[in-house]
Design a protein that fits this description.
The complex is a heterodimer of chains A (about 350) and B (about 375). Chain A is an alpha/beta fold. Chain A is built from 14 helices and seven strands. A seven-stranded mixed β-sheet of chain A has the order 2-3-4-5-6-1-7, with helices on both faces. In chain A, strand 4, helix 4 and strand 5 form a beta-alpha-beta unit. Chain B is built from 16 helices and five strands. In chain B, helix 9 crosses helix 10. Classes of the chains: A alpha/beta (about 350), B alpha/beta (about 375). Chains A and B meet through helix 2, helix 5, helix 6, strand 7 and helix 12 of A and helix 10, helix 11, helix 13, helix 14 and helix 16 of B.
Chain lengths: ~350, ~375
């Protein structure tokens, strides 16, 4: 038994619930036989992947749903072996090159050339080309992106590339200019409501609109999260009426606890306690950026208007440093200390002014 | 023999099966065939034409922003020098998608460089080509070659100069090591002016039989900022989209903007007004300042819509810099934070945090 997210995922372009304009575009492109390279971008949970699989189905028919998982080993120039997982059907291959870390260039070069140089042998196939889906394209290294450039032009005849990314900022301009950009925005409240009503109807129960509203508030435009929450709630209380307690993920409450600790006391001893908690979070594989953002949001909600700007400013600065540096905890901690000092200064100054 | 002609004229296509011209990207289809076709770049073209008559070529280094015709120029020149038949064995084209470490330089490039050029074959299309007695190695995107690989080229370039000419093509001349750069004659390619881009775009549009409004061409040029390849790709995508709907609709400037990933003006203007920059002259100062909360929710909205941060920032930057009533100090303060944010985004920073950061700073600077 699969999750509702997968079970009720639309399979064809016609079944998609929102962004109808986009769907008609994709359908027309798939039918025209003149399919370009594409770049899907948008926030997570907006339906990028779903749209890509629907487009593939439109292009090649139901054969694309027969998937097999394959593991390939690539040899880097320095004789290191890199293992990469591939999901493939007869018509497409899906890779996540960021798995290979800094060796993603090798993976891109080898794999794409191999695919590009083989032709579709199945005469009954609807299209002459194969499709390569590259996930998390925004985490590709510069080298790997440069390697894509010419390949995309040269092997246009038997390969199309679909890139899937959260944002286009990190992609180099030559790649963007070679793709048809498809922006998949997060669904609006009404659209989310209608999708959730649809899912609950398919699952055989009625969703009270108030409960739906509450879930939407919590999900922040992420439809996948909304449906997961819906399923979890349904498991907890089958009738979905009355007050609903949407369980926050553990790490989120934990982050909030850290934020509260920062505000309630500013001392070296408290910094030590916070450090312990941060280590705990990091060791549970919560991405440091997420930790920083969650804590910052919470802190900002609870402090005076005057210092909000400063706190966000330093959060932004330390976030960049964290990316460039290698030890995440240093920068997280530095930010915590910075926030404490801003907070204390603010109150100290206030106290002094009241004495005058 | 006439059967082979069309194939011979597109030697870039894989020889096993020629690409259907219908499906070819227009960028490839309308690549200039002769160097006279190259848009703008009068100076470079004039110099190169002289070398065409004297058939003597120096080592060359082409540099300039993307989409200005560097690769097209050298390919067209090589084709005019050698003709389609000789082109294949006289020209070696390597680019960033090929492995170009030091080992390749030592083996592949060196081997090719030291071959004596093969005898000139008679060209099938009956034209006379100068076909000078040397080969050309084109190193496209040479700025992504490692320092070591570039170093290894130094000696090769000199010792085989009699029979091989190198042409390095790159965006940033500063990333080519000095010894290499000094061995080449440099050609700078400038960004295309609007006049020549628009005439080229119009030419393609008429050749493809699509009706294009002058307003659309203007949008194409402004969205692609001097990069002709980008403009042509946008044009192709737009025409694809518009012709695939039934009935075919004409291309509108808004289509082009959506394809180019440009954020619609009203969204940017709304965001700017939240930051306290009045884009609309009619708006009075009576509207309350939205403060931190307002800015944050505006940023969240932008992120939800999925627009890219760098695009939002560059458009916001245009508004601030060209704003009629802000004073110089305010503008320069804003400029500072834009620069900071751009660097951060290049380093892969979180988009939401940085748009927020820019928003807060700009609103502080203009208030």
């Amino acid at each position: 038994m699969s999750l509702w997210v997968d079970q009720y995922r639309p399979r064809a372009l016609d079944d998609l619930h929102y962004h109808q304009g986009l769907s008609t575009c994709l359908k027309a492109l798939a039918a025209s036989g003149d399919f370009p390279h594409m770049l899907f971008y948008g926030p997570s949970g907006a339906g990028k992947k779903t749209r890509i699989t629907c487009t593939l189905r439109q292009l090649f028919g139901p054969g694309v749903e027969k998937l097999k998982i394959d593991q390939r080993v690539f040899l880097t120039p320095s004789r290191r072996k890199v293992e990469v997982n591939l999901v493939q059907s007869n018509f497409h291959i899906e890779i996540t090159p960021s798995e290979a870390g800094s060796y993603d260039r090798v993976v891109i070069q080898e794999l794409l050339k191999e695919i590009a140089q083989t032709q579709q042998v199945d005469l009954n196939a609807k299209q002459r080309f194969k499709v390569v889906i590259i996930n998390e394209a925004d985490s590709l290294s510069r080298d790997a992106q440069a390697a894509l450039r010419r390949t995309m032009e040269k092997y246009m005849s038997n390969m199309r590339i679909i890139l899937c990314a959260n944002s286009t900022s990190r992609l180099i301009a030559p790649i963007k200019s070679r793709c048809l950009l498809m922006r998949v925005a997060a669904p609006s409240r009404e659209e989310m409501q209608s999708v959730m009503q649809y899912v609950s109807k398919r699952a055989g129960f009625d969703l009270p609109p108030e409960a739906g509203d509450k879930i939407i508030d919590d999900s922040g435009g992420n439809l996948r999260k909304a449906i997961l929450v819906l399923e979890a709630l349904k498991m907890q209380s089958p009738d979905l009426s009355g007050p609903l307690a949407i369980a926050k993920p553990d790490w989120e409450t934990y982050c909030h606890k850290v934020a509260d600790m920062i505000i309630s006391e500013q001392s070296p001893a408290r910094v030590m306690e916070v450090r312990q908690k941060l280590y705990e979070l990091l060791s549970h594989c919560i991405p440091p950026t997420v930790i920083l953002k969650t804590i910052a949001e919470r802190v900002v909600d609870r402090v005076d208007e005057a210092i909000k700007t400063d706190i966000m400013h330093w959060a932004a600065i330390y976030e960049v440093r964290m990316r460039i540096g290698s030890k995440k905890i240093y920068h997280l901690e530095a930010w915590v200390v910075k926030v404490m000092s801003i907070y204390k200064h603010f109150f100290y100054d206030m106290d002094m002014s009241s004495f005058d | 023999m006439s059967f082979f002609k069309p194939q011979a004229q597109t030697p870039k296509a894989p020889p096993k099966h020629a690409v259907d011209p219908e499906l070819q990207p227009w960028v490839e289809k309308y690549r200039p065939k002769t160097i006279d076709d190259v848009s703008a770049q009068e100076h470079t073209v004039a110099v190169l034409k002289k070398t065409l008559t004297s058939t003597n070529l120096p080592h060359m280094l082409f540099y300039g922003p993307p989409g200005t015709g560097k690769t097209s120029t050298i390919l067209a020149l090589a084709r005019q020098l050698f003709g389609p038949e000789n082109f294949r064995n006289r020209v070696l084209e390597l680019n960033a998608s090929d492995e170009r470490g030091i080992s390749i330089v030592r083996e592949k490039i060196k081997n090719f460089a030291r071959q004596t050029p093969r005898a000139q074959t008679v060209s099938s299309d009956g034209k006379e080509y100068p076909c000078p007695p040397y080969k050309i190695i084109i190193l496209d995107e040479a700025d992504s070659m490692t320092q070591d690989a570039q170093g290894a080229l130094r000696r090769i370039m000199e010792s085989y100069a009699r029979i091989t000419r190198f042409c390095l093509v790159c965006n940033y001349v500063t990333r080519i090591i000095e010894p290499l750069a000094s061995r080449c004659s440099k050609f700078r390619f400038t960004s295309l002016d609007n006049q020549s881009s628009s005439s080229r775009l119009m030419h393609i549009a008429t050749a493809e039989h699509i009706a294009v409004d002058p307003l659309v061409v203007e949008t194409l040029i402004s969205a692609s900022s001097g990069d002709l390849r980008r403009a042509i790709t946008y044009l192709q995508s737009a025409s694809r989209l518009s012709s695939s709907t039934s009935p075919p609709t004409p291309i509108t400037p808004r289509d082009v903007q959506e394809i180019a990933g440009v954020v619609p003006d009203d969204i940017i203007n709304d965001f700017a007004s939240v930051l306290g920059i009045d884009t609309d002259q009619a708006m009075s100062d009576t509207t309350p300042k939205p403060g931190f909360k307002g800015i944050r929710s505006a940023v969240k909205e932008i992120i939800r819509e999925g627009y890219s941060a760098s695009q939002v920032l560059s458009q916001l930057h245009d508004i601030v810099v060209l704003h009629p009533t802000l004073n110089a100090k305010q503008k320069s303060q804003c400029g500072l934070i834009f620069a900071e944010a751009d660097k951060a985004l290049c380093d892969g920073a979180d988009e939401e945090l940085w748009i927020l950061e820019v928003g807060l700073h700009v609103s502080k600077a203009v208030s």
